[in-house]
Amino acid sequence: MRKIATTIIIVLLLGIATLYLYDKDFEEPLNFDDPYITGNIYDVGEERILIAEGIEDEDEFDIMFSGKAIWLSITEETKILNSNNEEISFNELEVGEKVTAWTTGLILESYPEQGTARIIKKEAELFACYVGGCSGELCTKDPEAISNCELLPGMECFQKGMSCEVVGNECNWVLSQEAAQCLLEIEESGELNVRESRIGFLFEMAENFSN
């Protein structure tokens, strides 16, 4: 009788251990200290993203990487978080952004590897933006950026509330209503084809701002 009871206890313990191992692999609360990969998004496909380690410069996105890399499928169970741990949509992920990823299930050992994302978390921006150039017309990661000294139509609008900020993992000008109006008035004067200059993109931004 004791042997039967002992056997039953052993079987129950094995069952509990099996359930514990299953939960350990798939169901336990996320351990934020143990991600599968931290890298930059190299490509965004249909319901999947390619993350690669070791990309430090935007020019490297034009060449093949050689470090750790993985295609991660995005499912209905995948949580996507911004740097403040707020849930966001898959459409808010962009090439070049630095993210940390946790996986679930098996990893296919191809190159790049393939797996399923459990959590994708955006990292906080690791760089600052600087205003540079001879006339303060550049918005760039480079604090020592220089440019040709030339007076271009629209440069006077930089003093009307424009700001140099991180937008989409890049440094870009952000227009104020006053700056957008200033640019539109200059273009409407019709004296020059202002969009052909190296700050011509600002006039398109002003047009889109007004729309």
Protein model, in words:
The protein has 211 residues and is an alpha+beta fold. The chain has 2 domains: 86 residues, Nucleic acid-binding proteins (OB fold (Dihydrolipoamide Acetyltransferase, E2P), Beta Barrel), CATH 2.40.50.140; 81 residues, no CATH class. Helices cover 22% and strands 28% of the residues. The protein contains 3 helices and 10 strands, in the order αββββββββββαα. The strands form 3 sheets. It has a 5-stranded mixed β-barrel. Strands 7-8 form a two-stranded antiparallel ribbon. It has a two-stranded antiparallel sheet with strand order 9-10. Helix 2 packs across helix 3. It is elongated and about 65 Å long. The relative contact order is 0.10. About 12% of the residues have low confidence.
Characteristics of this structure?
2 domains; elongated; 3 helices; 5-stranded mixed β-barrel; OB fold (Dihydrolipoamide Acetyltransferase, E2P); alpha+beta; two-stranded antiparallel sheet; 211 residues
Question: What is the fold's blueprint, element by element?
Answer:
Elements: H1 2-26, E1 37-45, E2 48-52, E3 69-73, E4 79-81, E5 98-108, E6 113-122, E7 130-132, E8 138-140, E9 163-167, E10 170-174, H2 177-188, H3 201-210
Parallel strand pairs: 3-6, 4-6
Antiparallel strand pairs: 1-2, 1-5, 2-3, 5-6, 7-8, 9-10
